[in-house]
Amino acid sequence: MGEKLLTRKWLLLSALVVAVAGIGLSQTFSPGYVELYMNSTVVGQGESLSYSGRVVHQLLPQADRLVGLQVQSQGSVIQVDQVRTDKHGRFSGAIGTEGLVAGNYTVSASIAGGDQHTQHFRIIQSPIDLSFTVDKEQYAPNATVTVNGSVTRGNQAVDTQVAVQVNDPQQALVFIDQIVTDAQGRFTTAFSLPADAPAGHYRVFVSAEGISQLEMLRVTSS
């Protein structure tokens, strides 16, 4: 009789220990744990930023889990996205930075009723791309020379001032102008060569935001 009572008490105590342990486990382990990684922490404006990660639960990969992503700047949400994990619990994607200003950003990945993981990245102002052309390669005195070009940063048009200068073969100043790009980042200017313009190769300098480009044009004798 005493042995049966002790056995019953031992079984009740064991059940209580298991129950308490179960409560502890349910409080310790969430429905999933999110890992998030970025391919870079610094990116230029207009460039793409890749991310990857995985979702696990009690060390097991979680397939077909919906992961929500948010990009924030100074506490404001500026981008949202959703991806699903593959059969290995992994997910990946890209964050576009077009239209985003230089500064610090936060990206977070989360799952419903589960974990959230946060990473940080910074967007820096990329150097501009400056290009231009003259409408012809050869001119005669009195001819009109037209200069067309564009200024971009990444895939974005840049609103900026552009300086244009033309020197003759003796390095004498022939033309100088300062213009502003339009909404598409384009610019144009034109000038007439003097009637007594010396024959030879003329240098056309175009510069903006510390970047300079050079083109040559040729003037023939009249």
What is shown here, in short?
By secondary structure, the chain is mostly beta strands. Helices cover 12% and strands 55% of the residues. It has 1 helix and 18 strands.
Keywords:
18 strands; mainly beta; 2 domains; 222 residues; Immunoglobulin-like; five-stranded mixed sheet
Outline the structure in words.
With 222 residues, the chain is mostly beta strands. It has one helix and 18 strands. Strands 2-9-8-5-6 form a five-stranded mixed sheet, with no helix packed on it. Strands 11-18-17-14-15 form a five-stranded mixed sheet, with no helix packed on it.
Any idea of the CATH topology of the largest domain? Immunoglobulin-like
What is the name of the CATH superfamily of the largest domain?
A: Macroglobulin (MG2) domain
Order of helices and strands: HEEEEEEEEEEEEEEEEEE
Q: How many H/I helical runs?
A: 1
Describe the oligomeric state of these chains in a short phrase. Answer: single chain
How much β-strand is present in the residues?
over 45%
- List the strand order in the largest sheet: 2-9-8-5-6
Write down the Rg: 33 Å
Helix content: 10-25%
Tally of discrete structural domains: 2
- For the residues shown, what is the average pLDDT? 86
Structural class comes to mainly beta
Count of distinct strands? 18
For the largest beta-sheet, the strand count, sense and barrel status come to:
5 strands, mixed
Quote the distance from N terminus to C terminus: 129 Å
Shape: rod-shaped
- Assigned CATH class of the largest domain: Mainly Beta
The low-confidence runs, each spanning 5 or more residues with pLDDT under 50, are 9-29
- CATH architecture call of the largest domain: Sandwich
